[in-house]
Backbone:
C-alpha cells in the first residue's frame, strides 16, 4: 500500500512516516499543507492519504476541505483524517457523501501503530473508520427517553462497532463469534431502533451515526 | 476647546440668559388702556360716519358694506398692532401697525360734514401717512426697524416726503377753490394762502407718491417672499401676501386718480377700489394677528414639551421641540461635555462640532460664561426672540436635563464599548491559548507518546518485561494526558464554533452534556464572532445551571428574531445568571430568566 502523509507539524509527520515504514507501508510523499497534498495526490496516485484536519494558513477547516476534494476528485484514493476534535459533526461531514474508504481518527491515537495501520488497511479495503471515542460519546449521550435502553449490552457492543464502521466479518473477529450471529444482532438492533437501512450494506454506518446524533 | 473663544461669540451669546420679564401691573394697564383707546376711537369714528351719512364725503358714509370694510380694516389693524405690542413689547412693529390702523380711519374724520374744522384738517393732513407706515411695517417686520441702512434711509425719506407734501398742500389749499375736492370742500384750519397752481402741483405730487409707495410696498412684499428661505417664507407669508394686495390696490388707486382726478363714492371705479383697499388692509391685520397667535401656540407647545422634558425626557426631545419652534426640521443640537472635551447629541453619541454653511447658522448657547450647547439651524430661524423663547424660558430646564442626560448616555456608551472590548480581548486571549496548547503541548505530548512507544518496543525486543510494563503504563499516562489536554483546549475555546458555526458547536455541546439536552432551530447562517460566542456561552451556561438545579433536562432553542439572535433555554433553573448577563450585556444584548425559561436577546445585525 502506498500512502501520502500531510501534517504541518514535522515531529508528528515524521513519526507517522516511520511508523508506517515499520509496518511495511510505503510512504509515497509528505506534505505540510493542503495545496501540497492535492498536488502530490494528483502526481503520485497513492492508495490512501493521512491528513491532519488543522493545517495552514488559517488552521480552521483546510484539512477537512482537502479530504473532501480528494474524495470527489479521486474516488479510488482512501482518506484518513486525523483530528484533535471529538466532533461527530466533522466525522459526519466527511463520510456523508461516500462512506467507503474514508476515516476520522483522533490524533492522539496516531502513534498506536495497531490503530493507525489497522485503520488504513480497513480504508484500503473500502471500509469506513470512525474513532471509538466519538462513537462512545454518541452511544453514551444522555437522552431523555433513551431508545438504546431497549438494547441488550451485547447489542450495544455490536451497535458501537457498526458505528465505528466495522464490517460484520470484522465485528465477528473482534467479538469471537461467527458472522451469522453478528448478522442476527444487527438485524435485531435495526428493528428495535426502527432503522430502515439495509443492516448488511456499507452505508449502514451513515444511518446509525445519523440516528445516534439526532436522537436526544 | 481652544477654538471656542467667547470674545467671538455672535449676538446670540446670551440666548440662554432669561429675557427680562416685564412687571405684571403695567402690562395689564397697557393692555386695557390700549384696547380701550382703540375701541373708543372706532366708536367715535362710527358716530362721525353716522353724522356724515347723507353727504357723499366718505366711502363708509355712503354705503353700509363700505362702512363694514372700512371699520374692519381700521379696527383690525389697530387690534393686531396692540397684540403685536403685547407679544413683543420691545418692538416698534406693533406701534406702527396701531398707528396705521388709526390713520386708515382718518378720511372718515376728514369727511365729517359740519364737524370741527381743526379735527377735519388734522385728519386730512394725517391720512397720507398710511402708506409710509405700511411700507415701514413690511420692510421691518417682525422687527420695528429695517435691517439695512439703505432701507432705513428710504423709510425716513418717504415719511419726510409724504409729511412735507401733505403739510404744504394744507398750507396752500383753499378747499372752496379746489375743483377736485370731494370729502372736504369747506374747512382748512391750516390755510396760509390760497395758491391754486401750487395746490394743483402738490396734489399731483401726492398722487405720484401714492403710486410710488404702492409699487414700493408691492415690491418689498414680493422681494421678501422670493428671497427668503423656506422657513422665512413660511413664517412671513401671512403678512407679506396681504402686503402685495395693499401695495397693488394703492397703486391702482393712484393710476385711477391720474386718469380722473375727481374721486368719490358715487363713482363705481373708486367705490370698488375702496373695497379692494379696505379688505387688503383687513387681510394684513389678520396676517399680523396670525403671527402673534402662531407665536403663542408655539410658546405653549414649547412649555408643554418642556414640562414633559422635565419629567422624563426622551433622548433628542429638545431637538424635536426646536425643529417645531423654528419650522426647521433639520435643526441639530450638540451638547458640550467639558469633562471629556467633545460634543454629543441627545442620545449621547459623539458628534462633530457643527459648522455654519448652506443657509445654516450656528447658535452657541452659553450660560454663566460656559458653553452649554450649539444649535445649528436655518438662517431664517435665527430670530433671537424665537430661539430665546424656545430655549430661553421654559425650556432652559430641559436643556440642562437633556445635556445631563446626554452626558450620562455618553458615559454609558463609553462603558458599553469598554465592556465589549474587555470581552473581545478575553476571547482573543482564549483563542490564542487554545492554539498554543494545540501547537505546543499537544504536539509535544504526541511526540512523547511516540518515543515511549518506541522505548516499549525496544524493551520488549530486549526481553525486559519489567521495563516493558513500566513503559506500557507510561504510554497509557501519555494517552490520558493527551486526552485531558484535548478537553482542556476545547474548554478554553471551542474551535468548532469559529470553524463550523453555532449549529455544529451546539450539537457537540449537547452530545457531551452530562444531562439530556435538546437543541432546536439553530440557524445555518453565520453571525459575528462575539454574537456566536455569547449565544454559545448562554447555552453552555444554561446546561451548567440546569445540572446544579437538578432540573433533569434542558431544551435549547436558537432563532433569529429581526435584528436579534434569541437563545431560549428551558430547564436552566432560576439562576442567578450574572456572568451570562454580563457577557450578553457587553455586546448590547439582554438576558432575562423566570421559573421556566432563560432568554437572551443578542443584537446580531
Residues:
Amino acid at each position: 500500500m502506498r500512502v501520502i502523509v500531510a501534517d504541518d507539524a514535522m515531529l508528528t509527520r515524521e513519526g507517522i512516516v516511520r511508523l508506517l515504514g515499520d509496518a511495511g507501508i510505503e510512504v509515497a510523499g509528505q506534505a505540510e499543507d493542503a495545496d501540497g497534498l492535492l498536488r502530490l495526490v494528483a502526481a503520485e496516485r497513492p492508495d490512501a492519504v493521512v491528513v491532519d484536519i488543522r493545517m495552514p494558513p488559517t488552521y480552521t477547516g483546510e484539512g477537512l476541505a482537502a479530504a473532501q476534494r480528494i474524495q470527489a476528485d479521486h474516488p479510488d484514493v482512501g482518506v484518513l483524517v486525523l483530528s484533535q476534535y471529538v466532533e461527530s459533526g466533522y466525522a459526519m461531514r466527511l463520510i456523508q457523501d461516500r462512506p467507503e474508504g474514508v476515516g476520522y481518527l483522533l490524533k492522539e491515537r496516531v502513534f498506536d501503530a495497531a490503530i493507525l495501520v489497522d485503520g488504513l488497511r480497513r480504508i484500503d479495503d473500502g471500509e469506513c473508520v470512525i474513532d471509538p471515542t466519538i462513537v462512545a460519546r454518541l452511544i453514551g449521550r444522555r437522552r431523555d427517553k433513551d431508545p438504546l435502553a431497549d438494547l441488550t449490552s451485547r447489542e450495544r457492543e455490536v451497535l458501537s462497532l457498526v458505528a465505528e464502521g466495522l464490517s460484520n466479518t470484522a465485528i465477528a473477529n473482534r467479538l469471537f463469534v461467527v458472522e451469522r450471529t453478528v448478522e442476527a444482532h444487527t438485524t435485531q438492533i435495526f428493528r428495535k431502533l426502527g432503522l430502515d437501512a439495509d443492516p448488511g450494506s456499507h452505508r449502514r454506518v451513515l444511518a446509525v451515526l445519523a440516528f445516534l446524533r439526532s436522537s436526544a | 476647546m481652544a477654538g471656542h473663544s467667547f470674545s467671538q461669540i455672535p449676538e446670540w451669546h446670551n440666548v440662554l440668559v432669561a429675557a427680562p420679564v416685564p412687571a405684571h401691573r403695567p402690562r395689564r394697564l397697557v393692555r386695557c388702556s390700549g384696547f380701550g383707546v382703540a375701541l373708543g376711537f372706532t366708536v367715535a369714528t362710527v358716530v362721525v360716519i353716522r353724522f356724515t351719512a347723507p353727504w357723499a364725503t366718505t366711502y363708509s358714509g355712503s354705503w353700509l358694506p363700505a362702512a363694514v370694510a372700512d371699520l374692519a380694516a381700521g379696527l383690525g389693524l389697530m387690534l393686531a398692532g396692540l397684540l403685536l405690542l403685547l407679544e413683543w413689547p420691545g418692538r416698534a412693529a406693533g406701534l406702527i401697525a396701531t398707528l396705521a390702523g388709526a390713520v386708515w380711519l382718518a378720511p372718515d374724520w376728514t369727511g365729517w360734514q359740519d364737524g370741527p374744522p381743526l379735527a377735519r384738517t388734522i385728519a386730512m393732513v394725517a391720512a397720507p401717512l398710511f402708506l409710509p407706515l405700511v411700507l415701514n411695517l413690511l420692510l421691518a417686520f417682525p422687527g420695528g426697524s429695517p435691517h439695512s441702512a439703505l432701507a432705513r434711509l428710504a423709510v425716513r425719506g418717504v415719511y419726510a416726503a409724504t409729511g412735507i407734501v401733505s403739510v404744504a398742500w394744507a398750507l396752500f389749499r383753499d378747499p372752496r377753490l379746489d375743483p377736485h375736492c370731494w370729502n372736504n370742500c369747506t374747512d382748512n384750519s391750516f390755510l396760509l394762502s390760497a395758491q391754486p397752481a401750487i395746490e394743483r402741483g402738490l396734489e399731483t405730487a401726492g398722487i405720484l407718491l401714492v403710486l410710488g409707495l404702492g409699487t414700493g410696498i408691492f415690491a418689498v412684499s414680493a422681494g421678501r417672499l422670493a428671497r427668503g428661505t423656506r422657513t422665512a417664507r413660511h413664517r412671513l407669508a401671512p403678512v407679506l401676501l396681504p402686503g402685495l394686495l395693499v401695495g397693488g390696490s394703492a397703486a391702482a388707486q393712484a393710476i385711477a386718480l391720474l386718469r380722473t382726478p375727481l374721486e368719490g363714492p358715487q363713482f363705481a371705479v373708486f367705490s370698488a377700489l375702496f373695497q379692494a383697499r379696505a379688505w387688503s388692509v383687513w387681510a394684513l391685520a389678520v396676517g399680523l394677528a396670525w403671527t402673534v397667535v402662531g407665536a403663542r401656540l408655539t410658546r405653549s407647545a414649547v412649555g408643554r414639551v418642556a414640562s414633559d422634558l422635565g419629567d422624563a425626557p426622551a433622548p433628542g426631545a429638545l431637538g424635536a421641540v426646536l425643529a417645531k419652534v423654528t419650522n426647521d426640521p433639520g435643526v441639530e443640537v450638540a451638547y458640550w461635555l467639558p469633562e471629556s472635551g467633545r460634543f454629543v447629541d441627545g442620545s449621547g453619541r459623539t458628534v462633530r462640532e457643527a459648522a455654519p454653511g448652506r443657509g445654516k447658522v450656528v447658535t452657541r448657547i452659553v450660560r454663566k460664561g460656559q458653553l452649554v450647547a450649539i444649535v445649528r439651524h436655518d438662517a431664517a430661524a435665527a430670530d433671537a426672540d424665537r430661539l430665546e423663547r424656545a430655549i430661553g424660558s421654559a425650556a432652559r430646564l430641559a436643556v440642562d436635563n437633556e445635556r445631563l442626560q446626554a452626558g450620562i448616555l455618553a458615559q454609558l456608551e463609553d462603558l458599553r464599548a469598554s465592556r465589549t472590548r474587555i470581552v473581545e480581548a478575553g476571547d482573543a486571549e482564549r483563542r490564542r491559548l487554545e492554539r498554543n496548547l494545540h501547537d505546543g503541548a499537544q504536539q509535544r505530548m504526541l511526540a512523547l507518546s511516540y518515543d515511549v512507544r518506541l522505548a516499549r518496543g525496544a524493551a520488549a525486543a530486549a526481553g525486559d518485561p519489567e521495563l516493558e510494563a513500566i513503559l506500557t503504563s507510561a504510554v497509557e499516562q501519555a494517552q490520558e494526558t493527551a486526552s485531558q489536554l484535548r478537553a482542556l483546549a476545547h474548554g478554553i475555546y471551542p474551535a468548532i464554533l469559529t470553524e463550523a458555526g453555532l449549529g455544529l458547536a451546539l450539537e457537540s455541546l449537547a452530545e457531551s452534556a452530562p444531562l439530556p439536552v435538546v437543541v432546536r432551530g439553530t440557524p445555518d447562517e453565520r453571525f459575528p464572532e462575539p454574537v456566536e460566542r455569547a449565544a454559545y456561552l448562554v447555552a453552555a451556561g444554561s446546561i451548567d445551571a440546569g445540572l446544579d438545579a437538578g432540573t433533569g433536562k434542558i431544551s435549547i432553542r436558537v432563532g433569529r428574531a429581526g435584528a436579534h439572535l434569541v437563545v431560549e433555554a428551558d430547564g436552566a433553573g432560576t439562576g442567578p445568571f450574572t456572568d451570562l448577563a454580563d457577557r450578553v450585556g457587553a455586546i448590547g444584548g439582554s438576558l432575562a430568566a423566570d421559573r421556566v425559561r432563560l432568554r437572551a436577546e443578542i443584537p446580531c445585525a
Summary: The first strand of chain B starts at residue 332 and ends at 337.
